[in-house]
Amino acid sequence: MPDSITLGIPLGIRTGGVFIEIDHTKALRGLPVMDRKLLMIGQRLTSGSVAANVPTRVLNADLAAGYFGRGSMLHNMAKALDKVKARYGLIDVYAVALDDLPAGVAAAGTINLTGTVTQAGILTAWIGGERVRCAASLGDSNSTLATKLAAAINANTDLAFTAVAAAGVVTVTCRHKGEIGNGTELAVNYYDEDTLPAGITATGVNLASGSGNPDVGTALAAISDDWFYSIISPYTDAANLAATEASMDGRWGGMDMRTGHVFNAMSGTHAALTTFGTSRNSPHISTWGLKGCPTWTPVMAAAFGAVCEYQGAIDPAIPLRSLEVPGVLAPRLKDRFTRNERELLLKDGISSTIANADGKVILERVITNYQRNPMGIDDESLLRLETKWTVDYWRYAQRVRIALRFPQHKLASDGTKIPPGAKVVTPSLIRAELIALARELEGIILENVDQFKKDLQVMRSETDADRVNSVQPPDIINQFVTFAAAVQYRL
Description:
With 491 residues, this protein is of the alpha/beta class. The chain has three domains: 38-99 and 214-387, Rossmann fold, CATH 3.40.50; 106-208, Alpha-Beta Complex (Baseplate Structural Protein Gp11, Chain: A, domain 3), CATH 3.90.1160; 409-491, no CATH class. The chain has eleven helices and 22 strands. The protein has helices spanning 61-68, 73-87, 142-155, 217-222, 238-252, 270-279, 297-314, 339-347, 385-405, 427-441, 449-455; strands at 38-43, 56-57, 93-98, 106-115, 121-127, 130-136, 161-166, 169-177, 186-187, 200-208, 230-232, 261-267, 285-290, 323-324, 350-355, 361-365, 410-411, 424-425, 446-447, 457-460, 468-471, 475-476. The strands form six sheets. A nine-stranded mixed β-sheet has the order 2-3-1-11-12-13-15-16-14, with helices on both faces. Strands 7-8-4-10 form a four-stranded antiparallel β-sheet. Strand 20 (457-460) and strand 21 (468-471) form a beta hairpin. Helix 1 packs antiparallel against helix 2 (73-87). It is elongated, with a radius of gyration of 28 Å.
């Protein structure tokens, strides 16, 4: 028969001696820290050294340029993440590259120049939120100036776009095939000082006619055995969204528990954004919607996801609001949504933004695409990203606590007489551990723990002798978003 105190040191050692093992199961105190990683999914260029569908840690944008090609989508997304890390702090970043769809078509747009330069100056163009400038010399024709601008665009090898000039028209083409280039802004002014050289007029036509995004399913398959908490995937076509939603649904369930949340972005009219929002219903995707944002949408998505991931890793319950998104240009005043328009966007599953007085882009409210339950009834239970991340941390914390406290224990029913030090657990002991954990989390991610203690059920399974079941009613802490008051003054 074994001793009541179960050790890894065998019984009946006839030679004797002093043998002492180390038991680490109660060494860790306090709350566990989740190992959170961020994943970028995007397209590579053939000049990159890392093949498609190979998860790769990305420390900075310079490395990304070598891995995926300078000027690639992933290189530009990594540049956005570097700006977020410089503004906030450390994020552990990985990337999985996709190749362009061979049958795809790259989006293209034009900058049309007319006239002749009558006073030397500078021509400024904005390509997907990136500034490009060239000298405009006295007497330059529109054709000469177009050639100079195309050369300046091509000289910036970090850009995800290339250019050619002919007869005063600069044609700008996305380096990548697919719909992801559509809508990219081509403009000749953003700041007040962006004035055209005297004698020149210009018209920008945004990129369009791109088709054939790659299949994001191959990237998701490449990470099927790993855990990435935040995923940036810029693809918003229906097929890729369906594949992404299905993959995240599987990771959310009780048998997998490798929660993932996807961030994407769109620039479009209010009608286009609400139409998109009402067509989706996933609690595992957040869409950032702006109108007329000059910044290329993959870069928008990368900056958006990185800011949320950084804040959520510190505290999953803290409101994702009043946070600057560095590296993203604010829409011009005429394109900024009103409060009423932003309220309607939030009702249709689109996260909202404001711009402050100095033009910085600020997150106003981050929500998921989830709006309705399976019966089609309005449901806010997983609308707020903070709610999803908070309840997931509760799940993670108790998984860690139970696994550490009872790693190799026998199971007995309540009321069993258990010798001191024996590795035996009962439902009551598990219940006590869960209550203790809830107390540690009170005021951090939980509230009303006394009610949790009262309603918590932990019981031994009636059909599986080796199993304990639990029904838990944690009251998740909420976010302070609104203050309302009535001022009843007196004279």
